[in-house]
Amino acid sequence: MTSTPRWRQVADATGLLAPDGGVGQTIFAEMTVLANRTGAINLGQGFPDVDGPDYVKEAAKAAIDAGRNQYAPGDGVPELRRAIADHQRRHYGLDVDPDTEVLATTGATEALTAAILALTGPGDEVITLEPFYDSHAAAVAMAGATHAPVPLTADLRLDAIALRAAATDRTRLILVNTPHNPTGTVLTRAELEQVAALARERDAVVLTDEVYEHLVYDDAEHVPMATLPGMAERTLTVSSSGKTFSLTGWKVGWLHGPAELVTAVRTVKQFMTYTSGSAFQPAIALALADDEAPRVLAASLAARRDLLCEGLEAAGFGVVVPQGTYFVVADGAAHVERLGLSDARELCLRLPELAGVVGVPVAAFCRQGSTAADALRSRVRFTFVKRPEVLRDAVGRLAALNR
Ligand SMILES: Cc1ncc(COP(=O)(O)O)c(C=O)c1O
């Protein structure tokens, strides 16, 4: 008997395998096609419609002109590694050695995938929250490990009891994403402490996806897992310049942690891309010294969040106001019921025609048929990382749902 090819396991883990064995496209691609076809405003995909700071773009151009066009060192250019270490010290008081404890990667995606491939394999279990970012599930499937998702509570917080119940002798890695995509939940120190205690008990490594670290609002605080007592030695921290500086296409990300874990990840990562972005890395090194640009972005995103949340509420959605990220999760149960639909997926397919707006169903971030997918079946994720005039237009259109 032949085994299921790994790519099919990846497709299955990310909900792309149809019952007839065919492979579908991601919900983001599907909804983007829908937006383009109907002229609807695409609040499904989370990328900014305004680029990051000009001086950072100029620095990349200057780096190209200065001849930084060949392979960068596999670990990343020294000034970027130093800038990452400085950033972690300045913001969080973390002591990181730029030479042995930092890797520059092709976005956070490569850091996460390389870490999961390096540290897990068949028989190992990887805990994540549920809903989860799709590449997390894909990487676990690539590694041949078992994904153990832990559903968030109804108010989208960590469920400490479910977390404990998911842990076994085979738990190798606990993957935590805070601020969390798709819910916008920012885990509190107390919630992170629950994860940390479990990781210590089970001798598991914690892999944290902190790509939205600077996009937190109101009185929420981003607490890096590595700052908790005893956690620096068992935590791999992943982040990226894409969200912080609105330069998602440059794919300059990084990972840091104890030298022996970083060595493990480097061993795998060097045979993935080896390196990328020679001219972008020095520009991001410059950006990382800038604490003002992320603060300004966060303040403007908080206002845009309020605009969209108020509009969604006025349009009959139930909203859990997010404390971080680019996203708000809105409950479309009233519309699903009123229109005789079965779930948010059907609502999302109808939204362009009903309201000229596109969102994505939150269940797409869950395992197909899971209890979390069921609990979140009427929820839709919308992004607010669009210009205020675009959001005002979207809110105006959404009002049509009430007519
Ligand atoms: C939670 C999360 N992790 C990782 C990524 C990917 O980051 P990058 O573009 O740096 O690979 C994203 C992008 O949307 C994300 O939302």
Automatic annotation (TrEMBL):
**Broad EC category:** transferase
**Stored SUPFAM superfamilies:** PLP-dependent transferases (SSF53383)
Q: What keywords sit in the KW lines?
A: Aminotransferase, Pyridoxal phosphate, Transferase
Q: Does the keyword ATP-binding apply?
A: no
Return the Pfam families for the record: Aminotran_1_2
Question: Is Chaperone tagged as a keyword?
Answer: no
InterPro entries in the record, alphabetically? Aminotransferase_I/II_large, Kynurenine-oxoglutarate_AT, PyrdxlP-dep_Trfase, PyrdxlP-dep_Trfase_major, PyrdxlP-dep_Trfase_small
The protein's GO terms of the molecular function aspect are:
succinyldiaminopimelate transaminase activity
Cofactor(s) the protein requires to work: pyridoxal 5'-phosphate
Instruction: Tell me the domain of life.
Output: Bacteria
- Residues forming the Aminotransferase class I/classII large domain are 40-397
Q: Which EC number(s) does the record attach to this protein? A: 2.6.1.17
Q: What is the protein name given in its UniProt record?
A: N-succinyldiaminopimelate aminotransferase
